[in-house]
Every structure is written in C-alpha cells, then in structure tokens.
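Quarterly update, task 2.4: uracil-bound model.
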Amino acid sequence: MVDILAKKRDGKVLSDEEIRFLVEGYTAGSIPDYQMSAFLMTVYFQGMTAKETAALTMAMVESGDTIDLKDINGVKVDKHSTGGVGDTTTLILAPLVAALGIPVAKMSGRGLGHTGGTIDKLESIPGFHVEISEQKFVELVNQNKIAVVGQSGNLTPADKKIYSLRDVTATVNSIPLIASSIMSKKIAAGADAIVLDVKVGSGAFMKNIADAKALAETMVDIGNQVGRKTSAIISDMNQPLGFAIGNTLEMKEAIETLQGKGPEDLQELCLVLASKMVLLAGGMETEAKARERLIEVIENGKALEAFKQFLKAQGGDPTVVDDFDKLAEAKYQIKVKTVEHGFVSEIIADEIGMAAMMLGAGRETKESKIDLSVGVVLHKKIGDHIEKGNIIATIHSNKEDVSEVVNRIQNAYRFSGEKPEDVPLIHGYF
Ligand code: URA
Ligand code: CA
C-alpha cells in the first residue's frame, strides 16, 4: 500500500491490479482509513488517467452484488442526473421511452436533503409500491417495458465506504472520484447503456461549465472503456426545473407533461434525454427521428397509457391521471409576494429545495418521515418581469405558520433592472 501511495504521489500511473488491490483491501477492512485517505488526497491533486478511472469504477462494481438483467429482452438504457431541484424527468422519460418499446428497468432511490427521489414521488399515487421481487421486476419489464424497483442488495459497498471517507477528508470534489462513484452504481444496477444529465449552475454540484464538461467527458469515457454505450448532456440548474417542487406536486407536473401540457423547460429536457436513450437502445437511426416519434406518443396518448399501465402493474390507482382530486392536497395554500421589482435573473435552486424541505417535502436525515402533499409551486421564472407585490410562488403546507419559508423563497429570487439574456437549457452534448 505504501508503494502504491508513493507511486500516485509522484504522478505515476497505477495498474489495474494495484487499483483492484486497493479497493478490495479497503472494502474488506485490511487497508485502514488513514491509508485510503492519503490515497484519495493524492487523487485529488494528481488526478487519474481515463484507464485508471475505468479500473477504479470496475473495482467498485465488483466490490458487491450486481443486478443481472439478461432475462430482459432488448438493450437496457438507464439515465442518471447529477442532482437537481424539482427534477421530475425520470417520471416522464420512463413511460415515454417504454411507449416506443424500449425496456426501462429502473432502480431508484428515495430523496435525501433538498433533492427529491423518484420513489417518493411515485408513492404519491395511492397504492403504488416498489417492493417487488427480482423475478417480478423482470416479468413486468418484459410485459409492459417499464418497472421501477427500490434499491436493494449490497450494491457497490466500496463506493459507500469511500464516499463517507471523502466526505470527511475534503475529497468529494474530485472529477475522477465523482465520475467513478456515479458510474459504478449505474453499472452494478445492470445498465447496458447510460444517458447522463450533468447539471450546472448555482443549484448544482458543478458550478461552472468547464467543470461540468470535464465530469461529462470523464463519465462518457468510463462507459465507453467498460463496454457501456454512454452519452451525456450538460443542462442548466440556475433555476429549478419546471414549476413544481415537492412529491405530489411534481407527480402532477409529470402527468401534465405526458399529456403535452407541461412546462416548456421540463418537456424540452425530457425530449432531449429520451431521444438519446432511444438512440443508445438502437431503436432509431437519428436523434431527430427519435424526437419525432417521442412527440407522436405524447400526442396520441400512448406515453400516458404506458404510464397508467405501469402504475396499475405496481398496485397504483391509474385513474388519478384523469382526476387529480384523488391525490393528496395540503391543507393550506399560501401565496408568496415579492418585495422587490425587476426582471427575475436567477432562482437559487438549492434555496427553493430547502424551502420545500422545511415544509416536510424532503428528508433531513435518512430516518425522517416526509409529507408527500407539501411543496412549492413557482409562478415566475428567469426573464419574467415583476412588480412589487406580485405573486411569485404558492406554498402548499400542512402548517399554518410558514413565515420562514416565505423568507427563504423571497431570498432565492434574484432580480436585475434589465431583461437578462436567455440562458440555454442545454449547455453541451457528449
Ligand atoms: N454523486 C455520487 O453518487 N457520487 C459522488 O461522488 C458525487 C455525487
Ligand atoms: Ca419540477
């Protein structure tokens, strides 16, 4: 171990065997935290080559169980977002892609902190559950082309252990470490192909485009080196996506998007990501063609039909799609007015996410119970002009006193005297 540390410290390249030794030893407990900490810090400063990063990824994949999806017909494409606020894309993408006959075998998690989890959002549908056996999961995907299961088993224990150590050694923010961490989880969950949505902006992990680009390129490189077709986009997180933040509220927004009447930014991002998924699955020759077909299944109702079938297959009530009154509603709806005026120039997404969490929409710790009905609906986004006293958002709450949440939302909005330039939704394709 000391030789490996010295080699990396001096900027030399580690072999696959050395990297595997390190990850296996650390997972098993024969390599102590202090040596792994030193290793992570050398990586932070020296970086890793593409080959080293791929070896690290595969060593983490092999540290635990892997999900075997070979009994599912077709190319299994997964999508991953590096974390956004109000990001409802999975709920829309999955039925959209499935409606074109491409299998979506999705393993999802619950939300932690101010970003939401797909499973929590799905549980806003009465009766819906994700506790299905592996066999049932495979069966459902073959039948309906879509199923979502909760995270189970001992996937990538090396990543869990290393991630905790990174957290306390100031080594989270290293591109090869982030890239290998994300990719190892997708690969262990059985993906043949992966579409990545790297977020950039005030509400994202990556604050500038150069860093987001480096992360996107590193992940695409890993995928291609280990035989998983991978592509990525960089998308904007200088404001939350769509208007709704909160579990049931986002479910409604997802259904509206599947009906062709969702927010423009959310619909566009879904079409871009879904086109890439279709392309990687080999379902279409060009992205333009895929996009055409995806718009078609929104317009002819097939995407919504796939969504209803999916809800029903996992115990959910599919009639909620046509009747939102069957979804839980918070007791109070409180309007938030501005005390400023001007053009909205930015909406700090983290702050809106925190506001929703304070209402009970998100977990402060893994054990927290959440309230599916609460959250925030924005009425104004970047570029909109606002006079003092205009309503910028509505709070959906089960608590009457929301003064702190009101402040938080007001402070999340930034204004400028002039109309800001249009920010592109997509900053790059890889
Ligand atoms: N998300 C992950 O899964 N891993 C990281 O290292 C960073 C973000
Ligand atoms: Ca949203």
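Highlight for this quarter: Residues 86, 88, 241-242, 244-245, 250, 253 surround calcium ion (ligand 2) (CB under 6 Å).
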